[in-house]
Amino acid sequence: MSNSKNVIDIKQIEDDLYTPLKNYIEIPQLIIGQQDDIPEDDLIYPRIVYKISSPYGNNQVQSYTKKIIESQEEEFDKDIEYTFEMFPMVTVSFLGYSDPQDDDLYMYMQRIANWFNLRLLGGRFFDEYEKDIVVREVNDINDATTELNQEYEKRLNIDVMLQIKHEITVIEKTIEKVVIEVNNNEQMEIDL
Fold first, then answer.
1. Rounded distance between C-alpha atoms, residue 106 and residue 103, angstroms
2. pTM
3. What CATH architecture is 2-191?
4. Spatial contact of 44 and 27, defined as CB atoms under 8 Å apart
């Protein structure tokens, strides 16, 4: 039997980041996930789209604890509970879009970097968040400007690496008594 404490819910983390980021960045349009689902007429400049990747790397068990607990089943007295800790990394990818003549996009992207780098902003948000999340790295802002139909669209991107504490609890039933059959119908009980 196993259950997870502190389960990684990427969608929930994406959703929870939206309001504090939107309030701090003050960009006209902030989009979670893909902009493909939004009608083109509803997309405005400047805008930033962000998403979080699935956990990867360093997904091996880093430590575990073992303790004896009361059994939840009547026929047993005790069970063993193992708690395994893992610290996977996720990437929050931000891609900003604007008109080529608009110089404000870099400022908005810099605000993202500031929010994650500063203890009083992103650090405080994650300290108060219900899951253990730590900002591990804020990458540089990169220019990804693209030509679209003989016109350019300014694009900037930045990635932020987060490390999330993930715990999995496994409860193993214990064998407390063994019954051995000897000499046809005789039984011998051994307490373990």
1. 6
2. 0.78
3. 2-Layer Sandwich (3.30)
4. no
